[in-house]
Amino acid sequence: MQARRVHYLNVDYGVKSWLLTKDHKRIAILYLVSISFFFAIGGMMAALIRLELATPAGDLVQPDVYNRLFTAHGVIMIFLFLIPSIPAVLGNFLIPIMIGAKDLAFPKLNLASWYVYNLGAALMMWALLRGGADTGWTFYTPYSSMYANSEVILTALGAFIVGFSSIMTGINFIVTIHRMRAPGLTWFRLPLFVWAHYATSLIQVLGTPVVAIAILLVAAERLLHIGIFDPALGGDPVLFQHLFWFYSHPAVYIMILPSMGVMSELITAFSRKRIFGYRFVAFSSLAIAVLGFLVWGHHLFVASQSVLAGVIFSVLTMLVAVPSAVKVFNWTATLYKGSISWETPMLYAIGYVGLFVIGGLTGTMLATLGFDIHVHDTYFVVSHFHYIMVGGAVMGYLGGLHFWWPKITGRLYPAFWSKISALLIFVGFNLTFFPQFVVGYLGMPRRYHAYPEEFQVLNVLSSAGATVLAVGYLLPTIYFIWSMRYGERAGSNPWGAYGLEWQIPSPPPTHNFEEKPVVTTEAYDYYTLKEKRVA
Amino acid sequence: MQAESSRAWGLAHHFDNFEQQREASYLGMWVFLVTEIMFFGGLFTAYVVYRSANARAFALGSKELDIGLGAFNTAVLIGSSLTMALAVWAAQQGRRKQIALFLVLTILLGGVFLGVKVVEYEAKIDHHLLPGPDFHFEVTEVDEILGVQEGNVQMFFNLYFAMTGLHALHMIIGIGVLLVMVVLALRGSFSRENHNLVECMGLYWHFVDIIWIFLFPLLYLLGRNL
Ligand SMILES: [Cu+2]
């Protein structure tokens, strides 16, 4: 027997050693636990919604309860799961390692962000226990500020507080990437995962404060009767929509950009090739971040916006398709003549590309003024953003989790079951959401608990798909937990992948590197890696 | 690998040297200030949008503010930025006593500012200018013909209290941190190499000062001649 190697997991077992840790790897695990919990709760809300919609009549829940259900589903999934998912778990764990640092620049701030996140989440859960909010996750005024008879203030303040945890993570990443890179690790040698997180952090830092002030003003309006958005005082409810979407559209890129970063890692690793057009992929992340701030008006096409503004926002929105397509084409070109292996993370990656293309193209359709007005507030929109956020962000998150799980825990999960679950998720997802494109195009509005009978077939298909999807999500939960004890031990580099994180033991030691690494090669230098093996 | 014991005191384990630590904390502070600009930016946007829609009502609201007290406070705050800058200078020179002295002066000036603000707020409350059910503003007939409604004037005060209130909250938090820093300075926690906290706090304080430099003309001065 070898002497037991000390790593970040077994260095200390006490509860205090976890709750007061400043190790970015342990904080990533804390986040993993928190967001998995809230993902489960948000998922249960979705299950109830799909159950209600299995029949045309509103027979399971009252309309008012239904409003609270979809509000809770949206608020929890967006603020408590999607936004922190990849950055706070995978980004937290990997960015310092990928750039050859011992930790993030501000370890205490990192830990504080987890506490702030949980404080905000606790407020939201408290609101939920008291009946929840019924405004939709968008908190539109004047309904939210003057008329809603539900827990708007608590829910909104929860979102406000969670926003600060997102800002803290963003500041930490920006400073870390600027100041903590190992010798020789120039900007253009960084893994694209890091570039994607850099762009994400810029959005977190620039956007989140704006929604924070908007939410704060809604809460003040309810609580102190300061009617900032009250038309009776010359206020403008549409101003809230502007402030809200100034953040909340870019927030979509907070969710999708990190998953694009994951994709670049997965696709290169499992086709054993350098990424095609490294700089294009890197800059497309920044381009998406910048363009993302110029398109919020596409949520206001039918909200008293001038035609000229509508046209401008429409064109700018279509421009976002350009950097997105650059990524998709470059991933595809990377696959070309690569030696592709179909490990589980790769299944997620390929699934991701397919779903993202559908989500992206329908996004371009929605950017078109005339078409958007036709399908405005229908299930077409619902389906579109689920293709992006679930088909994109969640697939990316799960793909990344499967890729780095051996690094995080030092254990392998069962290959067979993980491939089954990847397949179930892909099939279940499409079965859930593709019918929603159709039923939305046919005119079924979103946010109603009952619908005309002719929509039933498509809705039953969707609900059936949700069941498959649920099984697909349950499986990883089981085998990941199983693997922590019984999984085969993973070596330092189970996939034969390139990158600093694969050069240190799994799980990594507390300070990541025994010696400060010096980087002398480009990113994804699989060619040299192969030569070394042969030699 | 460097042994922990051989490291200089005050250098966190994950930094290579003081320079890296310093650069990281400055950049972090600057990025934080960017988020602050965006935070206040939302309110400034609301102000610009509503003012352009209700210029006369906002001017009437402006006239209710005490320009003398506002100007006095502006001077006080600029003075506090000077003492803050002197504290940073003292830190760079490694003069511990002087750091504490200038920090205390900054705190005192900040306190004067907040005190004057309380006097101003009280006067507004007495004149029924606090937004809410008690709000009352007499709109003259002429102004009514010009399209001014009581509600529009109330909107001015909504924004006045929201903007100056948020600014005052930043001052209070700043003073709290400064108090802690006085203790640290007296204990000798700051040295020539390691006084990032003082520098970062300097940046924060100047930022809060600059916000006021924008608030003062926007709220007190614009349109007073109407
Ligand atoms: Cu959008």
Secondary-structure topology with pairs:
The complex is a heterodimer of chains A (535) and B (226).
Chain A: H1 15-19, H2 24-52, H3 63-98, H4 107-129, H5 143-147, H6 152-179, H7 192-224, H8 237-271, H9 278-292, H10 307-335, H11 344-367, H12 369-375, H13 379-409, H14 415-441, H15 456-486, H16 526-534
Chain B: H1 18-53, H2 55-64, H3 67-93, H4 96-126, H5 141-145, H6 150-187, H7 196-221
Helix pairs in contact in B: 1-2, 1-6, 1-7, 2-6, 3-4, 3-7, 4-6, 6-7
The structure holds copper (II) ion.
Copper (II) ion binds at residues 249, 252, 298-299 of chain A.
Structure write-up:
The complex is a heterodimer of chains A (535) and B (226). Chain A has 16 helices and no strands. With 535 residues, chain A is mostly helical. Chain A has one domain: Cytochrome C Oxidase, Chain A (Up-down Bundle). In chain A, helix 3 packs parallel to helix 6, helix 6 packs antiparallel against helix 7 and helix 11 packs antiparallel against helix 13. Chain A is globular, with a radius of gyration of 23 Å. The two termini of chain A are 31 Å apart. Chain B has 226 residues and is mainly α. Chain B has one domain: Four Helix Bundle (Hemerythrin (Met), subunit A). Chain B is elongated, with a radius of gyration of 22 Å. The chains are: A mainly alpha (535), B mainly alpha (226). Chains A and B meet through helix 6, helix 7 and helix 8 of A and helix 1 and helix 6 of B. The complex binds copper (II) ion. The site of copper (II) ion (CU) has 4 residues of chain A, from helix 8.
Q: Assign the CATH architecture of chain B.
A: Up-down Bundle
Q: How many distinct folded domains of chain B?
A: 1
The main pleated sheet of chain A reads as: none
What is the count of structural domains of chain A?
A: 1
What would the average pLDDT of chain A be, to the nearest integer?
A: 94
Provide the helix percentage of chain A: 55-70%
Stated plainly, the CATH topology of chain B is called: Four Helix Bundle (Hemerythrin (Met), subunit A)
Helix count of chain B? 7
Decide which structural class fits the backbone of chain A.
mainly alpha
Main sheet specs of chain B: none
Secondary-structure class of chain B: mainly alpha
**CATH class type of chain B:** Mainly Alpha
Q: CATH superfamily assignment of chain A? A: Cytochrome c oxidase-like, subunit I domain
Order of helices and strands of chain B: HHHHHHH
Please report the distance between the alpha carbons of the first and last residues of chain B. 71 Å
Shape of chain B: elongated
